[in-house]
Amino acid sequence: MQISVFGIGYVGAVSAACLANDGHNVIAVDPNPHKVGPLNEGISPIVEPGLDELIQNGIGSKRLKATSDVREAVNGTDISFVCVGTPSRSNGSLDTSYVAAAAEQIGAAIREKNSFHSVVMRSTILPGTMESIVLPALERASGRQAGVGFGVAYYPEFLRESTAIADYYDPGAIIFGRHDQATIDRLLELHKIFKVEPRVVSIRTAEAVKYTNNAWHALKISFANEIGNICKEAGIDGHVVLDVLCADTRLNISKAYLKPGFAFGGSCLPKDLRALRFAARRLDVPTPILDATMAANEEQLRRAYSMVAATGKRRIGLIGLSFKPETDDLRESPLVELAERLFGRGYDIRIYDPNIQVSKLTGANLQFVKSHLPHLATLLTSDIDEVVDHAEVFVLGNRDEAKRLMSAINDERPIIDLVRVDQTRCSGDLYQGICW
Ligand code: NAD
Predict the structure, then answer these.
(1) Is 209 inside a domain boundary?
(2) Which of 73, 84, 262, 423 is the Cys-Cys partner for 7 at CB 3.0 to 4.6 Å?
(3) Of 138, 168, 197, which residue is a domain's last?
(4) What positions does the domain UDP-glucose/GDP-mannose dehydrogenase C-terminal occupy (predicted)?
């Protein structure tokens, strides 16, 4: 199939590379030259395990290319996947301006096209957004009626950064929000290779499923953190408690996200929870559980800060800065928040993260660091030994690097282990320090 992917970010770059890997011809579209340029040279614009290789293969086989030219992309393809950002506004509501602009641009290109084009929204949008914003923008700009002159679907994305390619090939669920059958048929054809049977629901249901999914993950994390905090103070290993809970076959609970650890963060859970709570307020629906999930997350940050303060040490070595290992995504990283608090209270910090090295950051990420974290950028080092020499206490946010670090130090300096979840197990043998 001929496919265009709008937005070369954490979702779009992975989707485009994987679709090309599946044998489709893919045109990735982004107005940002720092995304288009590297991709055309076979370089991934983001840090994601395995993505460089897929992009190189895609460019090498000529099945993948990038452009900023919307018309070229829509004219040359049958179906467009829209993967542009939907960030939080300052009041917590969902900023749909990128989605609306992409719909306008694609609609204008459809106006000049003779064949039936399908527009598939993959960005996370609140229920009703397709109906109230995306469809009107497409119809206005194309001068055609949705379902007749072009097709539409909503297909929520569930990938997790750092395991995004594995998630693409082994998705937990595939949900299509139906508008017209022609577009659903195209999506079904594309997804024949997957083991999971796609589920076709209404567009509003599909929009709601995505928010429910992220709210559930956030709730599980906050719940596990709270149980972990109680267990820790009572001298019990909270990981074992939750492992045993998940082993109860009658409960049938997945272990995913149900591990004590640090606060959740990243570009999805906090912003999607905020948007859901904002939407609920507008509907006059109280959300005490979602409110508590956010409050519990804030508490986890406060506890981490208190743990550092309790050591009485001032020179801190922070290992890891992105919101989880194996990504360079700093958006709403709780480690950034912790570093800010420590920095603001005069702690002398050095930060090491293999994926956030100022000298190696490119384009969009460099801009992000410069505009959002100029003060922290001066504390980042590309030399983990500098952190080892500097620190009186270590704060671990990245387990892989922690292992390396642990072999470099064999003294009694305190270690505060904030590494969350699946890649982590607090082990007294390796981590003699303070664990959750
Ligand atoms: P991102 O910020 O990394 O990337 C968005 C990209 O869209 C940017 O490169 C931007 O330049 C580009 N863009 C903006 N306007 C455009 C336009 N008109 N045409 C083409 N490109 C345009 O965002 P992301 O993390 O990839 O997330 C995208 C969407 O997917 C969001 O709605 C997010 O909530 C959702 N999502 C993200 C994840 C994740 O793990 N990051 C997972 C599931 C769903």
Answers:
(1) no
(2) 84
(3) 197
(4) 317-418
- Two structure tokens written together for 11: 């979702």
For the Cβ of 108 lying below 6 angstroms from any atom of ligand 1, the answer is no
Instruction: Return the exposure string of 382-417: e unless at least 16 CB atoms fall within 10 Å of the residue's CB, then b.
Output: eebeebbeebebbbbbbbebbeebbeeeeeebbbbb
In a domain, 51, yes or no: yes
**Rounded distance, CA 348 to CA 391, Å?**
9
> Quick count: other Cβ atoms within 10 Å of Cβ 43?
15
Tell whether 30 and 143 lie within a shared domain: yes
Q: How far apart are CA 322 and CA 330, in angstroms?
A: 5
ipTM above 0.95, yes or no: yes
Tally of domains within the chain: 2
pLDDT (tens digit, 9 = 90+) per residue, 172-184?
Answer: 999 999 999 999 9
Residue 130 lies in domain? 2-197
Region class of 266: left (phi > 0), else alpha (psi between -120 and 50), else beta = left
Amino acid at 305: Y
Q: How far is the CA of 336 from the centre of ligand 1 (A)?
A: 21
Would you place residue 311 in the very low, low, confident or very high pLDDT band (cuts 50, 70, 90)?
very high
**Residue 214 resides in a domain:** no
Largest CA distance in the chain: 71
Q: Is the residue at 229 inside a domain? A: no
Q: What pLDDT band is residue 120 in, cutting at 50, 70 and 90?
A: very high
Q: Residue 176 is inside which H or E element, if any?
A: strand 175-178
- Average pLDDT for 220-224: 94
Please give the distance, rounded to the nearest whole angstrom, from the Cα atom of residue 13 to the centre of ligand 1. 9
Both 186 and 328 in one domain: the answer is: no
Q: Are 103 and 133 in contact (CB under 8 A)?
A: yes
- Relative to beta strand 2-6, strand 315-319 is unpaired
Q: Alpha-carbon distance 269 to 248, whole Å?
A: 27
Q: How many CA atoms lie within 13 A of 328 on its CB side?
A: 24
Catalytically annotated residue among 83, 231, 268, 435: 268
Instruction: Using the predicted structure, report yes or no on whether residue 2 has a pLDDT greater than 50.
Output: yes
Q: Is the C-beta atom of 156 inside 6 A of ligand 1?
A: no
Ligand 1: does its nearest atom lie under 6 Å from the Cβ of 96?
no
**CA dihedral of residues 181, 185, 187, 189 (deg, nearest 10):** 180
231 catalytic, yes or no?
no
pTM of the model as a whole: 0.94
Q: Which atom of ligand 1 is nearest to the CA of 160?
A: 40
Of 164, 180, 197, at which residue does a domain stop? 197
Contact indicator for 121, 154 with CB cutoff of 8 Å? yes
Instruction: Indicate whether 149 and 255 sit together in one domain.
Output: no
We report the CATH number of the domain holding residue 365 as 3.40.50.720
